[in-house]
Task: structure prediction
Amino acid sequence: MLDLAERTGLAQNTIKRAEGDNGPAPVNTANAKLMVATLQAAGAVFLPAEGDMGAGVRLATPLQPALARRRTHANPADVTP
Result:
């Protein structure tokens, strides 16, 4: 959740609301589209329901490169004087 919040710039509470239900996410359309686009850019492939199988998600490839974080937090321990 924290990683997705950092990558999208959305509040953690927004991500938590979207993850908290199996039905339609209780978030606005713009935020939902941003989360989907960010997950797709990270290699997630959204699969539609088919026959008796429900919808799902899988990785496009296990070798998908990591995305750069949108927010950065300076860690004082990482700074050399």
